[in-house]
């Protein structure tokens, strides 16, 4: 089989690494990929926003399966585009249709969906320019902090959590008037939920599903979960509070009704569902849906999957997922993200990275890296993810931290306190 993966981060290197282990796979292409994917597969310089360019590549290279890493191409309708092409009838497309991707692409839609299918989530109201005064009245009924979410995709920056009522009103006004462009023409106002977050992933064929190991990522740049939000500074799996009782609640109250809803709404959905959850006093609430794997969660979830991922994806594509029982590694996994100094604000790129030959007992995944004049250099904010196994998440973290000392580039930064809130 020939597989094409879209994307260029740590998630895509991990997908590539896992897919490469399948005896079914002969060739892997990654568009555009990074220095890590290029070592184990073939990077191709395609514009992942250009559906036709992707379709042409698939035809010329006789690709059997495409796995779409990030959300943008999905929200952009790549799946519908490829499936509408009669000459691509046998292509397996891993990623939902546009109608499914809207679960991530519109927070207003996601909230309506959750309400319709009785999925536990925060109380909310959707504000628009037309209901501004009613929105203010709604906010008055909420306790601070106030949660304001741009409806559409805003590159992870569209959620504001504000302590002051007047500031919240001011920000709401700015959002409705274009702060995040079209993405904030609607704003979801939400009850603040106090708890610890975790991420749960499923692979679905639109009717049946398998659940992957849960994970917890660390979004803030600073130790103690302080400072600005990032794409994710590291992750652990399993999550200590995710016990059998919590797991059953997630399955019954969140995963099953979501997949039932997808099927009931006749949404074409083959691919990953990411449930962003928060544990409020032992009960799971959905904070958000994503229609792809998480990054850096993938860097701990896929190493813990013992089964052949490609077999699962083929079953999803053939709608035979109900026959699949994936096996998981009982060991814990942790990943530590090495980032460019200054990230998530302005940072320098092009730093030479060294120490790769000293890595032992850790799986090194590239994120923002490229090859320049024969050197591997940094090309993004998140640069390298170091994933290790251990008897528990703390042992796994310790191994990744040891490895972090040998990977060197100018102004490298990483959080040294991952897992602190799970002790
Ligand atoms: P989202 O893009 O919806 O995942 O929101 C980004 C982050 O904001 C989440 O990961 C949470 O940390 C936080 N957040 C979102 N909604 C809420 C909420 N209702 N209560 C508390 N925190 C929230
Ligand atoms: N780690 C969170 C995300 O991928 O959105």
Strand content: 25-35%
Number of strands: 23
Mean pLDDT: 97
Helix/strand/pairing class, anyone?
alpha+beta
- Which word captures the global form? globular
Radius of gyration (CA) equals 21 Å
Cofactors, ions, other ligands: adenosine monophosphate, glycine
Helix content: 25-40%
Number of helical runs? 13
Distance between the termini: 44 Å
The unreliable regions are none
What can be said about the biggest beta sheet? 6 strands, antiparallel
Supply the CATH class of the domain at 2-97.
Answer: Alpha Beta
CATH architecture of the domain at 2-97: 3-Layer(aba) Sandwich
CATH topology of the domain at 2-97: Rossmann fold
List keywords for this structure.
Dna Ligase, domain 1, 423 residues, 23 strands, Rossmann fold, 30% helix, alpha+beta, binds glycine, 13 helices, 6-stranded antiparallel sheet, globular, 5-stranded parallel sheet, binds adenosine monophosphate
Short description:
The chain is of the alpha+beta class and 423 residues long.
Give structural notes:
This protein is α+β, with helices and mostly antiparallel strands. Among the domains are: 2-97, Rossmann fold; 123-190, Dna Ligase, domain 1, CATH 3.30.1490.20. The chain is 30% helix and 27% strand. The protein has 13 helices and 23 strands. It has helices spanning 10-20, 35-40, 51-61, 72-75, 78-84, 98-105, 107-116, 132-140, 165-176, 244-264, 298-301, 309-318, 393-404; strands at residues 2-7, 27-32, 42-43, 65-68, 92-94, 124-127, 146-150, 159-162, 187-190, 196-204, 209-211, 216-217, 220-222, 226-229, 234-237, 271-280, 283-290, 332-340, 363-366, 369-372, 375-378, 382-390, 412-413. The strands form six sheets. Strands 12, 15, 18, 19, 22 and 23 form a six-stranded antiparallel β-sheet that branches. The protein has a five-stranded parallel β-sheet with strand order 3-2-1-4-5, sandwiched between helices. Strand 1, helix 1 and strand 2 form a beta-alpha-beta unit. It is globular, with a radius of gyration of 21 Å. It starts with a strand and ends in a 10-residue tail after the last strand. The model has no long low-confidence stretch (mean pLDDT 97). Bound molecules: adenosine monophosphate and glycine. The site of adenosine monophosphate (AMP) has 12 residues, from strand 7 and strand 17.
């Amino acid at each position: 089989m020939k597989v094409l993966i879209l994307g260029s981060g740590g998630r895509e290197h991990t997908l590539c690494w896992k897919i490469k282990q399948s005896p079914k796979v002969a060739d892997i292409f990654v568009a555009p990929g990074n220095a890590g994917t290029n070592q184990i597969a073939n990077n191709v310089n395609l514009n992942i926003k250009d559906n036709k360019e992707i379709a042409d590549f698939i035809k010329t290279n006789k690709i059997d399966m495409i796995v779409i890493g990030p959300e943008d191409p999905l929200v952009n309708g790549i799946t519908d585009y490829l499936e509408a092409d009669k000459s691509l009838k046998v292509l397996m497309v891993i990623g939902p249709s546009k109608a499914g991707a809207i679960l991530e692409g519109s927070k207003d839609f996601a909230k309506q969906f959750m309400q319709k299918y009785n999925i536990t989530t925060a109380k909310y109201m959707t504000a628009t320019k037309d209901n501004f005064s009613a929105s203010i009245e709604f906010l008055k009924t909420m306790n601070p902090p106030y949660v304001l979410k741009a409806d559409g995709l805003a590159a992870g920056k569209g959620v504001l959590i504000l302590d002051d009522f007047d500031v919240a009103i001011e920000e709401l006004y700015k959002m409705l008037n274009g702060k995040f462009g079209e993405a904030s023409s609607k704003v979801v106002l939400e009850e603040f939920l106090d708890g610890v977050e975790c991420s749960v992933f499923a692979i679905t064929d639109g009717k049946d599903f398998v659940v992957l190991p849960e994970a917890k990522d660390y979004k803030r740049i600073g130790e103690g979960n302080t400072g600005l939000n990032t794409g994710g500074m590291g992750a652990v799996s399993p999550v200590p509070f995710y016990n059998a009782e919590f797991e059953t609640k997630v399955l019954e109250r969140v995963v099953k009704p979501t997949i039932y809803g997808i099927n009931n709404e006749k949404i074409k959905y083959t691919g990953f569902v990411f449930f962003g959850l928060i544990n409020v006093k032992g009960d799971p609430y959905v904070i958000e849906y994503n229609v792809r794997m998480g990054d850096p969660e993938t860097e701990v979830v896929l190493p813990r999957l013992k089964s052949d991922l490609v077999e699962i994806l083929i079953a999803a594509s053939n709608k035979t997922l109900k026959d699949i029982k994936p096996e998981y590694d009982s060991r814990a996994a942790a990943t530590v993200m090495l980032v460019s100094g200054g990230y998530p604000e302005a940072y320098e790129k092009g730093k030479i990275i060294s120490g790769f030959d000293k890595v032992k007992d850790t799986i090194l995944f590239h994120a923002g890296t490229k090859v320049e004049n024969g050197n591997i250099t940094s090309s993004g904010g998140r640069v390298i993810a170091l994933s290790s196994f251990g008897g528990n998440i703390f042992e796994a973290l310790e191994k990744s931290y040891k490895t972090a000392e040998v990977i060197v580039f100018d102004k490298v930064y990483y959080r040294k306190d991952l897992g602190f809130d799970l002790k």
